[in-house]
């Protein structure tokens, strides 16, 4: 008979090169630099990174809360000696599930483990009763990797916010494009048919918007906004920019007025800047200018109207704003000039519940005229019950204006198209 070979039961948890590296990394922890509360908050936030799921996060938080708060001082030991059975009781899972989750946390580099020969967890104390070592679940690697993991959480949150922002913009652009298609009466049937087919094609390519990538949503939004501009027959952006650069007369078809009449509109030098009113007094062609150029609000200095720099807004007429915001008439406002609309802004803010600070920031960032349009749009959406927090909505528009991402003209045209379609039906 041959010799029977008896295989001994493997002692301890399976070790891999990665787990060995995590153990070495945990030994370099600087105890005392991170508190228990910081680790607990981090463990709850790690689910957004995809490293662990909700149940594993619950187990990790339970492990962190097991360690006494004073153990996070420089002389503390971040080792948990609870058994799998006790941990399973605390989080409401089976013992086998806890064992598998501990292995997953070990592989993710969120804990390290040192098993004894009989798989028990116990501390090793010196003569004074202080814990010097032990076999259990070591949390020191969380301190070593705290900055790295916290940055991962921040990036995941930032990406999620960007994706939500892109999703909202895409859905708004798609809605505005369909409203604009229904209100574009000046285009031929053939043109409307082609534009409608392109809008639906973009929608079909995106598919379920909630599952589309941020890149696809951005490209689809840009295409839809370009289609809206075509349906509204807006001038090309390059031509519009050239027109803005060369314009020295305040006569504009839709009543907009350029406040800076020098070739260097954004320079800080005050000796190169003149008010529009002063320019008209010395101009021999002032008699041919529109009456909009001589409004009282435009005769003030640039510092008084807080015109922002490095911002270029698409031009909208006051009549477009009135068509887009029927709530102005509902609340008793009947502005005939931009100055009337600007003077009505404080009262509109009180009706909508917008704070003075939010209004002031909007004026500082966008200027009086654009801020008045933004407040009017906010009032309209508040009247339609589409905005629950008008003050927060205006602050968000101000932030987008600061980044150069605010397009008030598109909002005005979209609301005007929607109102036209509702009246038609």
Automatic annotation (TrEMBL):
It holds the Pfam family RP-C. It comes from the Bacteria. InterPro entries: RepABC_RepC, RepC_C, RepC_N, WH_DNA-bd_sf. Residues 257-284 are annotated as: Disordered. Residues 318-417 form the Plasmid replication protein C C-terminal domain. Residues 13-184 form the Plasmid replication protein C N-terminal domain. Residues 265-276 have a biased composition (Basic and acidic residues). NCBIfam families: RepABC_RepC. This is REPC protein. It comes from Rhizobium meliloti. The lineage of its organism: Bacteria, Pseudomonadati, Pseudomonadota, Alphaproteobacteria, Hyphomicrobiales.
């Amino acid at each position: 008979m041959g010799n029977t070979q008896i295989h001994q039961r493997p002692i301890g948890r399976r070790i891999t090169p990665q787990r060995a590296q995590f153990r070495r990394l945990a030994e370099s922890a600087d105890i005392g630099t991170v508190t228990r509360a910081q680790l607990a908050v981090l463990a709850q936030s790690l689910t957004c990174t995809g490293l662990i799921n909700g149940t594993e996060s619950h187990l990790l938080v339970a492990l962190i809360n097991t360690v006494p708060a004073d153990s996070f001082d420089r002389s503390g030991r971040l080792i948990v000696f609870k058994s799998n059975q006790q941990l399973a009781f605390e989080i409401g899972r089976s013992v086998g599930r806890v064992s598998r989750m501990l292995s997953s946390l070990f592989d993710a580099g969120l804990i390290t483990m040192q098993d004894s020969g009989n798989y028990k967890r116990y501390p090793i104390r010196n003569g004074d009763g202080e814990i010097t070592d032990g076999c259990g679940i070591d949390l020191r690697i969380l301190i070593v990797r705290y900055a790295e993991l916290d940055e991962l959480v921040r990036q995941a949150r930032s990406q999620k916010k960007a994706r939500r922002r892109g999703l909202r913009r895409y859905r708004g652009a798609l809605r505005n494009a369909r409203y604009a298609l229904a209100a574009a009466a000046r285009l031929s049937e053939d043109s409307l048919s082609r534009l409608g087919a392109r809008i639906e094609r973009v929608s079909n390519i995106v598919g379920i918007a909630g599952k589309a990538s941020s890149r696809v949503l951005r490209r689809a939004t840009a295409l839809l906004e370009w289609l809206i501009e075509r349906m509204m027959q807006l001038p090309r952006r390059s031509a519009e920019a050239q027109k803005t650069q060369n314009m020295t007369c305040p006569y504009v078809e839709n009543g907009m007025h350029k406040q800076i009449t020098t070739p260097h509109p954004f320079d800080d030098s005050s000796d190169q800047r003149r008010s529009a009113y002063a320019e008209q007094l010395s101009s021999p062609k002032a008699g041919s200018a529109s009456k909009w150029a001589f409004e009282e609000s435009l005769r003030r200095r640039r510092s008084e109207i807080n015109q922002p720099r490095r911002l270029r807004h698409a031009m909208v007429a006051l009549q477009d704003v009135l068509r887009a915001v029927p709530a102005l008439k509902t609340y008793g406002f009947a502005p005939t000039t931009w100055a009337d609309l600007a003077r009505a802004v404080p009262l509109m803010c009180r009706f909508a519940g917008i704070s003075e600070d939010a209004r002031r920031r909007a004026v500082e960032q966008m200027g009086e005229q654009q801020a008045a349009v933004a407040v009017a749009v906010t009032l309209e959406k508040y009247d339609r019950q589409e905005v629950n927090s008008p003050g927060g909505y205006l602050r968000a528009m101000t932030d987008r204006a600061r980044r150069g991402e605010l397009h008030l003209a598109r909002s005005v045209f979209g609301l005007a198209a929607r109102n036209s379609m509702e009246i038609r039906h």
